Design the sequence.
């Protein structure tokens, strides 16, 4: 149980295009999902907290107009990187949980912007 | 604000040797503590967690960790490592109602 999936696992796009990443909780409902970003050889940095039915809460320094988050249902949250640039290339990971204490992480999405 | 320190960025160890990966945190309130493992190009997998109760926590793959409140530490140990344990290990803390804070990670390399 407690499986979180992400789609796509890999995406390569041209600079200036937008990319949507999906995060799904497959066998449980998650009122809150989290989006992280991980640069090579670095730790995870929380970008935003996605709340079902309401606006996401962004961490300081994260551009909410660039990283659009939608939490359409209790099992789906999406992150859209708008007008992507090479510096947005990174590994994006989502997490979701049934309790506040435990989060289950998705397998990650690697984004490469050319 | 809470923070997590993993003093060793890289730990090379020979196969079947014991290993300890260190984690210290700073927080003035009770915390929940976690260790995650990340294999190349993959997401994070929970190894073990401390929420309350016994300070010695056993996890998957033969790993265990001990919560030491006085030293604000949560070191991860394994008595005998395998090649397959080669990965990045992240310590994380979370206050009640707050978000996760991750350490910088420790790369464990198990040598044949």
Sequence:
């Amino acid at each position: 149980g407690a499986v979180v999936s992400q789609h796509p696992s890999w995406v390569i796009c041209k600079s200036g295009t937008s990319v949507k990443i999906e995060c799904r909780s497959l066998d449980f409902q998650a009122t809150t999902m989290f989006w992280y970003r991980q640069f090579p050889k670095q730790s995870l940095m929380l970008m935003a907290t996605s709340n079902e039915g309401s606006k996401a809460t962004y961490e300081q320094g994260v551009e909410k107009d660039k990283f659009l988050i939608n939490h359409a249902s209790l099992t789906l949250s999406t992150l859209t990187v708008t007008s992507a640039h090479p510096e947005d290339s990174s590994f994006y990971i989502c997490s979701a949980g049934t309790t506040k204490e435990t989060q289950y992480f998705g397998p990650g999405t690697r984004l490469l912007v050319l | 604000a809470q923070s997590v320190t993993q003093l060793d960025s890289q730990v090379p160890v020979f196969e079947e040797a014991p290993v300890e990966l260190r984690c210290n945190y700073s927080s003035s309130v009770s915390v929940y503590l976690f260790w995650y493992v990340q294999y190349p190009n993959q997401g994070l997998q929970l190894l073990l967690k401390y929420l309350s109760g016994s300070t010695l926590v056993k996890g998957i793959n033969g790993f265990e960790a001990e919560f030491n409140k006085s030293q604000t530490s949560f070191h991860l140990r394994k008595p005998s490592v395998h090649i397959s344990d080669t990965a990045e290990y992240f310590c994380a803390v979370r206050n009640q109602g707050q978000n996760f804070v991750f350490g910088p990670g420790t790369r464990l390399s198990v040598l044949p």
Summary: The interface with chain B takes residues 4, 6, 34, 41-46, 49, 93, 95, 100-108, 110 of chain A (CB under 8 Å).
